[in-house]
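Render this sequence as a predicted structure.
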Amino acid sequence: MTQNDENHLLHEICRNSSMGVEAIHQVLKDVYDEEFAYELNVQADKMEQFARKAGMRLRENGSEPSEPKPIATAMLKTTIRMKQALQNKTEDVADMIGKGNERGVKELKHAIHKYRNAGIYATELAKEMADFEEDNLRKMKTYCQDTEDSDKK
């Protein structure tokens, strides 16, 4: 295990979590389906837990968790606002969040491979988060399918 790889992977978990939570908070104010809003809140809470765990480990390693770059956060907010201006139905928001989950999974899997000497704690935490995001992606797809199914009737 190398400390450098571990810290890089933990930083990626923090960054990935922060971006996910930010995206959810941006869309929640326009979500009127209570069940869907609850699902998004659960997702955000769990992502915050991943960030806290990674942050605690980084501090143990003598490092501080890094925040996403301001430009990335600004781009995320702008993209969400633009998409929401065009679409504001539950299935559209679910699709947008699902795509974020999909991107998060890809980034985490890439980081796990890139920092393969990170050690068990960071690697398992990253894998757990990737599994969580894959599960969220499946859940978001059900919100899209429910609407597609009702449209066909």
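Summary. The chain is about 85% helix and 0% strand. Helices lie at 3-28, 34-60, 70-86, 90-114, 120-152.
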